[in-house]
Amino acid sequence: MGRSGVARGNAAEAAIAQGGVELDLQRYFPYQLARLAEQVSLAVAEVYSERFALTRQEWRVLAILGMRPEIATKEIGPLTTLDKMQVSRAVQGLESRGIVGRKHHPDDRRELIVSLTPAGRALYRKIVPLALARESKLLEALTADEVAALDRVMGKLSAALA
Amino acid sequence: MGRSGVARGNAAEAAIAQGGVELDLQRYFPYQLARLAEQVSLAVAEVYSERFALTRQEWRVLAILGMRPEIATKEIGPLTTLDKMQVSRAVQGLESRGIVGRKHHPDDRRELIVSLTPAGRALYRKIVPLALARESKLLEALTADEVAALDRVMGKLSAALA
DNA sequence: CGAAATTCGTATCAGATGTTACTATTATCT
DNA sequence: AGATAATAGTAACATCTGATACGAATTTCG
What we know:
2 copies of one chain form a homodimer.
Chain A (H helix, E strand, L loop, with lengths): L9 H8 L11 H24 L3 H12 L2 E3 H8 L3 H13 L3 E6 L2 E9 L1 H22 L4 H18 L1
Antiparallel strand pairs in A: 1-3, 2-3
Helix pairs in contact in A: 2-6, 3-5, 4-5
The first copy, chain A, binds a DNA duplex through helix 5 and strand 3.
């Protein structure tokens, strides 16, 4: 029988010869995923960051507000995967630039209700088509079947982790 | 004819009635991907962070060193997707704990050559099986075909972005 | 050869981020 | 009701991170 390690690279073989297991970072799924997510994040950030000076957190809050005319601050976290401090800072940033307004909930004065200002809504209308176009451009690299498969598998993985 | 927006949710319909396009963050691919990557990153960080007090950057450098007995610092960045400052700090952190050693390149004293110490190699041998097991556990949620498809599609997307 | 430019790695400082603790308000429990 | 606990949001502090600039070593080019 042939010696072991025939199908592996030299480094792997060397590691195994030393009695160890080895890990190829380039083929390690968590690393691949982190790298891809970083690339995509950078590509998308061009849309909201460079042209509109929004942070990623502010952009997420803005996206949520586009669908919900009014929303309690405490609801934003779960919807955007931001912690409450990140939400607080993002909303403050948006408010300081006149993109959102805040008021107290009438029945619970601890809560703040956030909504887009007219300027905020105008910004939203400008930015969303660009963001959607960027998404389309990214996914153009794939066939429709591949996009569907990716979507399904990512959902499955995400659900398994939750 | 029915009015438009029949197949959409109320929020979408409301946005469209206002003449705007809308974006559902939960279904926006870049957000889904970022969220999944974050979940996976946290799951994997349990392995190296909690038990061995390594940062993500240090873990990546360690992973590279497991395959390359010696490596120039300047090569680490491209292999790990870290910038030179992150590499510098990660290597310093590893050195301060006796996990790696450094020496000058004999023919170019600007460069530093990094290698695992015996303690570093022992750590590597302990940690890699755990990291691989964690990867397997994550991917258990998928069928073999799904894993293959995911790998292929991620590679395709990543290549298109590079 | 010797000045200028380039490369490698790091110090330094500014800004971003996470953690803890606090204030204000409301809910709960006796 | 009144004390106690819980919740929403933020301030304050410590830490992490990124950008710039620098010193040391080497290379390039006049």
